[in-house]
Amino acid sequence: MTHVVTESCIRCKYTDCVDVCPVDCFREGPNFLTIDPDECIDCAVCIPECPVSAIFAEEDLPKDQRHMIKLNAELALLPGWKSITKRKAALPDADDWKDKTGKLSELVR
Questions:
Q1: Is 38 part of a structural domain of the chain?
Q2: What is the pLDDT of residues 17-33, one digit of tens each?
């Protein structure tokens, strides 16, 4: 099993989670973070760090977010999605988006 970033992260991209990851499994896209399932060691230290509760253990994913398992794996392999290991500022309008749902159409690859 691995951990999965859900739609809640889209257009927010808070990076508190990357500071605590012991294996640097997060990858950064234009408006979303993903977890590389081949790198994640299931330590779960990232879960409480996420201010929008976007990270779940795969077995705990809400049913409406199951599609994010495959999407996290796909995005982690994209050439432009590089490893992120240090916290940086969230997106400028993250606070406007943090409580919105159904953001998949907003994802920029």
A1: yes
A2: 999 999 999 999 999 99
